[in-house]
Amino acid sequence: MTRTMRYVAAVGCITCVAVALFAYARTRNVIVLNNASGQTVVSMVITVRGDEVEFGELATGDTAAEHFAIHTDSSFEVTGELADGTPVRGSFGYVTNGMYGETATFSVQPDGSVVFDQR
After folding, report:
1. Distance CA 91, CA 36 (A)
2. Beta-bridge mates of residue 89
């Protein structure tokens, strides 16, 4: 194999890996939790068809993100608590098997309500 052929093969391999990584990143589903409550979120669990995504304490103004999988049709079930004991509860959105690259954003408000956005 000549030097030029090795170079072309190496560039081709690097390009394939880069495209695969880009495609993988675009198909991952993400839950984003934003604490706009003015106090610490002491616990938060967001469940998607039985799969729990747990968030630890989240200081006011902070944001956390976790990946999630979609195995079947479902909604997001939210269960949590603010530092003063205010419960955070709700059912939001809809996902179905075959959806990729979804971002579900949950913004916790001072009264424990949640503003939800899904893209």
Report:
1. 19
2. 79
Give the pLDDT confidence of 30-75 residue by residue, as tens digits: 999 999 999 999 999 999 988 999 999 999 999 999 999 998 899 9
Candidates 31, 39, 32, 33; CA nearest to 60 is: 39
Spatial CA neighbour of 66 closest among 107, 31, 28? 31
Fold for domain 28-118? Immunoglobulin-like (2.60.40)
Give the pair of three-digit tokens for residue 43: 């616990």
- Token pair listed for 70: 């979609």
Residue identified by tokens 């304490």 is: 57
Q: Which amino acid is at 84?
A: D
Q: Which residue has the tokens 């610490």?
A: 40
Distance (Å, whole) CA 57 – CA 53: 13
Residues in Cβ contact with 3 at an 8 Å cutoff, skipping those fewer than 6 apart: none
What is the residue extent of each domain of the chain? 28-118
